[in-house]
């Protein structure tokens, strides 16, 4: 694992982003005076809350595809896909806070980055399994 | 890590399943005309939403026990336990969409698969620590 | 990865804790007769539910910083930070069940443990990248 510093850096950056987005929800609670454990309130608060929840729901999928891409396909490709995902999530969150419709461009970019990471992972895993168990070198 | 392609394949499959379940929630939103950020609606929508949330809540636990089992106990056992978990989640989700009670068989299977993965991980970790720090070979 | 048994043990312990906290929500459902998929009810139930949700939201961040610290900085430091996080989450959850205010001491400790893990990870990753790509040895 010594050689996966850059995928580690992208993972750490993404987790700092997730911490920052949780903080944004906390600030929205303060701005709208919504004391926990309540999760309902004015539309802007509910959009901020749901934007964060959606990021939470997808975060483990991102980590899995980032690392399977990095380990089994290419570290460089994982870094590019990972940075694209992090940027897309930033755009998604800020869009969603403004309006439900404005979440969509960032969300589609998120799906594109995830799909690219998953496709590269699949390529790397299938060719690795063929190499290991069937001695087929693509 | 070069040799963990099959555990990587199970992880990737599980993350594709999680993406598919998120899509099912999106389709339930369309069918019942529940626009985000709302998460309340007719019972079938709420069951679909909560079924997905429960999968989200348990997904990191699954990934941890899958990989600790694969790394420290046996790759083959991790694959079997992982595929059992993925099947159980499929059964759970489809059951829960139908009725609250029908979530139970899949849920119990989920817990069984998770417990088996955790128990094998524990065995592998304890015997690894004994071997490494106490030079005891079980 | 053969040598990361102790970080594996901390990961496994944290996932057992997460399973236990999910069980606590299940028991709160039974105590207050809140049948799934409902997530609203008396304040104590809602605090228990949100306490668990907050643990779920932060769990992948914990796993990322635990492993980047263990892999790229120091296994011992990761174990200490990880055990601190698990203890802080225990304190947070039990405090939150009692009152919204009593969640705070545990929550601040959680953030301290996470920040320490992230800072050590960052140190390890930056010095690793400098060593690998710039041949600078700190």
Reported for the largest beta sheet of chain A, the result is: none
Number of domains of chain A: 1
What is the chains' assembly state?
Answer: homotrimer
Q: Largest protein interface?
A: A-B, 28 and 26 residues
CATH superfamily label of chain A? Membrane associated eicosanoid/glutathione metabolism-like domain
CATH architecture identity of chain A = Up-down Bundle
Structural class by sheet pairing and helices of chain A: mainly alpha
The CATH topology of chain A:
Four Helix Bundle (Hemerythrin (Met), subunit A)
Count of helix runs of chain A: 4
Order of helix and strand elements from N to C terminus of chain A: HHHH
The proportion of strand residues of chain A reads: under 5%
Q: Average pLDDT of chain A, to the nearest integer?
A: 96
Q: Mind telling me the CATH class of chain A?
A: Mainly Alpha
**How many angstroms does the end-to-end distance of chain A come to?**
25 Å
Give a count of the beta strands of chain A, DSSP E runs of length 2 or more: 0
Helix content of chain A: over 70%
Radius of gyration of chain A: 18 Å
> What is the approximate shape of chain A?
elongated
Question: Mind explaining what this structure looks like?
Answer:
With 138 residues, the first copy, chain A, is an all-alpha fold. Chain A has one domain (5-133): Up-down Bundle (Four Helix Bundle (Hemerythrin (Met), subunit A)). Helices cover 81% and strands 0% of the residues of chain A. The first copy, chain A, contains four helices and no strands. Chain A has helices spanning 5-32, 43-72, 75-98, 104-133. In chain A, helix 1 runs antiparallel to helix 2 (43-72), helix 2 runs antiparallel to helix 3 and helix 3 (75-98) packs antiparallel against helix 4. The longest helix of chain A has 30 residues, at 43-72. Chain A is elongated. In chain A, 46% of the residues are buried. The mean pLDDT of chain A is 96. Chains A, B, C: It is found in: Endoplasmic reticulum membrane. Chains A, B, C: Keywords: Endoplasmic reticulum, Leukotriene biosynthesis, Membrane, Transmembrane, Transmembrane helix. Chains A, B, C: It is a multi-pass membrane protein. Chains A, B, C: The chain crosses the membrane at residues 58-86, 106-130. Chains A, B, C: This is (Atlantic silverside) hypothetical protein.
